Amino acid sequence: MAIEVGAKLEGKVTGITHFGAFVDLSGGVTGLVHISEIADNYVKDVKDHLKIDDVVKVKVINVDKDGKIGLSIKQAIDRPEGQPAPQSRERHGGGSAGGAGGGERFNRGGGGGGGRPFNKQSSGRPAYGKPSFEDKMSRFLKDSEERISSLKKNTEGKRGGRGAKRV
Fold first, then answer.
1. Is 120's pLDDT higher than 60?
2. What's the rounded mean pLDDT across residues 128-157?
3. Tell me, what's the pLDDT at 92?
């Protein structure tokens, strides 16, 4: 039986690791359900959701050239038309493979990025009194230059050869 991407199959959990679960599909063909594809919500431990010998419905999401099969339990769930999957709260910042909504975080518009709205006043500062990114950057550069010059002043007289003290 050829395994095709998009096919929904039933399989038996044969192994559990910290990064996912191995599922035997049929005829000795085994695929991996990654921890991120087990449930719609955050999965801390695979063993909280699956046990060995559980029979699960999976969807084939990819088949590599070398024979590795990627499976998903959460994509195999049949949902009524128009009902989206519940949004999980991602723990990582910008490395999501989907890329959906990635650029909204830095939006300086009216608040589409989910954070506080950026109301630009004549001074270039946000309305809520916190310094803008540019203000923070210029302050950082100024402090950094002061520290470097201070270090240079304190180390110029201390340069010398191996333990030779200056008088």
1. no
2. 84
3. 47
Under 8 Å between Cβ of 66 and 58? no
**For 49-66, what is the mean pLDDT?**
92
Which are the contacts of 105, defined by CB distance < 8 A and separation ≥ 6?
A: 94, 113, 114, 115
Give CA torsion, residues 99, 103, 106, 111, to 10 deg: -110
8 A C-beta contact, residue 92 and residue 35: no
* Beta-ladder partners of 71: 33, 60
- Residues 6+ away with beta carbon under 8 Å from 10: 55, 56, 57, 58
Q: Determine contact, residues 1/16, Cβ cutoff 8 Å.
A: no
pTM score of the predicted model: 0.49
Q: Is there a contact between 37 and 61 (Cβ–Cβ < 8 Å)?
A: yes
* Higher-pLDDT residue of 141, 116: 141
CA distance 147 to 10: 63
SS3 state at 73 = coil
Identity of the residue numbered 23 = V
Give the pair of three-digit tokens for residue 143.
């402090």
